[in-house]
Write a structure and sequence with these properties.
201 residues; alpha+beta; 4-stranded antiparallel beta sheet
């Protein structure tokens, strides 16, 4: 229980949107607010929550509590997802495609926020149908829930799959991603500094 509480405290929250609704009553119009919030630890855990209240701060607080209470673990291969998947909710569907290291998250604001909070930094996406934020969030959440690791698929099929296409893609891409601790980069930076000093002299 203590580990679960510590894990929840480490999660970052992000407000996707605040929505205002109005009800016409005898004395005029009564406003209420709904808030959509996602939470994640940037390390494979993601959750979302939607709540309503008469005030914006309390709506965000209630949505954050719901999101922290309903989280999900997301399997990853390096900085991307294990395989291509399509998540659906209502009239919205979102396709998530693995990408090589250095590609980044190619997505809209809502999908990008969810993937980055889940710790996925390389992924291609495409939304179909409705682009309503609530539906898109639920569709992405459904897609992330459909992901399976290679070990899970091997156990279901009862056979060894070997290296997957995503693993090979990640391995190939990792060769071209520069490392900041590499001597070649340090050497290039030193050469640039020497040239600037010579020009100043």
């Amino acid at each position: 229980m203590r580990e679960v509480m510590e894990e929840r405290n480490q999660m970052d929250s992000h407000t996707i949107g605040v929505y205002r609704t109005a009800a016409t009553v005898k004395g005029g119009r009564r406003f209420s607010f709904g808030s959509l919030v996602i939470v994640g630890d940037h390390n494979g855990t993601i959750g979302f929550g939607y709540a309503k209240s008469n005030e914006v701060p309390s709506a965000i607080e209630k949505a954050t509590k719901k999101a922290r209470a309903h989280t999900r673990k997301v399997p990853r291969v390096g900085s991307t997802i294990p395989h291509e998947v399509t998540g659906r909710f209502g009239a919205s569907s979102v396709r998530l495609i693995p990408a090589s290291p250095g590609t980044g998250v190619v997505a809209g604001t809502t999908v990008r926020a969810m993937l980055e909070h889940a710790g996925i930094s390389d992924c291609l996406t495409k939304c179909y149908g409705s682009t309503n934020s609530i539906n898109v969030v639920k569709a992405v959440f459904d897609g992330l829930g459909r992901l399976q690791t290679k070990e899970q698929i091997e156990e279901l099929r009862g056979q060894d799959l070997g290296a997957t296409e995503t693993e090979e893609k990640v391995e190939r891409g990792a060769r071209f991603v520069p490392k900041f601790g590499d001597r070649s980069i340090k050497g290039a930076a030193t050469d640039d500094e020497n040239q600037k000093n010579e020009s100043n002299d």
